[in-house]
Amino acid sequence: MLSVRRRAVNAVMLSLTGVCTLLAVGTLLFILGYLFVHGGTSLTMNFFTKLPTPVGELGGGMANALLGSAKLLLLATCIGVPIGFLGGVYLAEFGGSSFSFVVRYTTDLLNGVPSIVIGIFAYTLIVLPQGHFSTLSGGLALGVMMIPIAIRSSEDFLRAVPVSLREGAMALGASKAKTIFTVVIPAAKAGLITGIMLNVARVAGETAPLIFTAFGNRYWSTGWEQPTASLPVMIYTYAISPYADWKQQAWSAGFVLLMLVLTINIFARMILSKRGHAAR
Amino acid sequence: MNTRPSGPVSALWQRLRSGDDIAYVITLTSALTILALTALLVFELYKNSAVPRHQFGWSFLVTSTWDPVAGQFGALPFIYGTVVTSTLALFMAIPLGLGAAIFLAELAPSRISNALTFLIELLAAVPSVIFGLLGIFVLVPALIALEPAIRSVLGWTPLFSGPFYGVSMFSAGVVLTVMIIPFIISISREVILAVPAEQRDGALALGATKWETTWDVVIPFARQGIMGSIFLALARSLGETMAVTVVIGNDPAIHASLFAPGYSIAAVIANEFAEATGDLYLGSLIELGLVLFGLTIVINGLARVLVLSTTKKGAS
Questions:
Q1: Rounded CA gap, A264 and A37, in Å?
Q2: Nearest C-alpha of chain A: how many angstroms from B202?
Q3: pTM score, two decimals?
Q4: What is residue B66's DSSP assignment?
Q5: Are residues B20 and B79 in the same domain?
Q6: Residue A243 maps to which CATH number?
């Protein structure tokens, strides 16, 4: 017979685990709701089309920060994805040696480096020698952050392609390179693209490495040499400012950023889970 | 005229035509780039912190004066703030995260578990600047309102003494808790799910309750993997910048009370880097970056070893 005490402990502890889960999920729902109420409801077209206004003048927007973020992410993708993708091809198709182990280990190590330290790296490489903040240095910082995720996700998705496909291509006389680029990569295409989307979403919200690389800009930033505004840094600057109007805009910007990041995440994960079921 | 190469040149030509060697060289170069970048990162941090390293030596790590005007730089208050806030976050996140992981892995039906895990992974995707925003405008006012209640329970300890202004190491710890919980939950859930069913069946057959089975058999079996998830979470919280910067109070001093303001390594870099002038000041901030890098590398390394050893154990 179970003692009353053991039954009670069982019931209490199991319910507590449910409470923990509710707390964690509740936090996400709270964040979504709070940002919608405080940021989403006051979002206007001005936000997307106007430049920031001087202090005290109402009605400004963050058009330059949106464009700045887009430029930074484009540059980061151009730096991080090719290196990461080709590195992933190496690990999945040519790897297997102790050198691959070193590459995987280093990738994990780079992935664990705090984003602010990556910011310092981009600063010492570009800002310090050039003597000024620039879009280029911000894009480099985000690009370096994208590499480890890009390499691991490409490796995983390429490895998920069945060996029989490779064997089929090779049996028809295709070289290894031809097999990889005309059979394996197209077969893994959906996964690879989803991996890139998730990667972009992850760095889109990065603030710390941009503060002293891309810096900030109240106006349009032309070319790659000027400092540029970006959505996350704008949120930070406006949130700690003493002006009510700026704080309000920080909420709107926060809502836009959160929606962007979560939409990409949900979309990407839906594609992945659909593929997962099809494969089984 | 026949320009077709012959002999060894022809062999090389044939190999290049198949493209295998080209593909190998290109992808190998990309893999090497990653090694080179990481090495360059360490080198740049090391090179650019030369001035303070020569001037202060190891005492940089144990001195607590941070005075840019007088040219005195010591990292201790920042190391202290970083370690205290991260420890506090672990203290709160481990029971909550482990509890949720147990619920998701052992109790919830798989459909519900998958849906909830999906939501929790979305929580991990929320940018840290959003947590900062909520930290300033929601958490800090909420903690000020809750202060009397916290004090009445824990006020007798030196950890919750002294005045409370809302921004404090405690507030930073709470924000970090929310940010690292998703990592503990999703990794712990996976290692708990990897525990073989026979382990549970054996305990249940001996008459153990569901909770006893989970706590005395499943969790010990998954212990190393859970420890790994905790170390991963720790590494994340050590390097977390924006959300901490806005709620920690930015005071480079060492206070025993968690209600007192503090400063973290990442926060001081974020706040002072863009305005730092002179090789000594800038170098000191870069050296702080080097310290943070070293800390996270060690913790991450431990985490990987632990997670790997458990997943292997479950598979065998």
A1: 21
A2: 17
A3: 0.92
A4: E
A5: no
A6: 1.10.3720.10
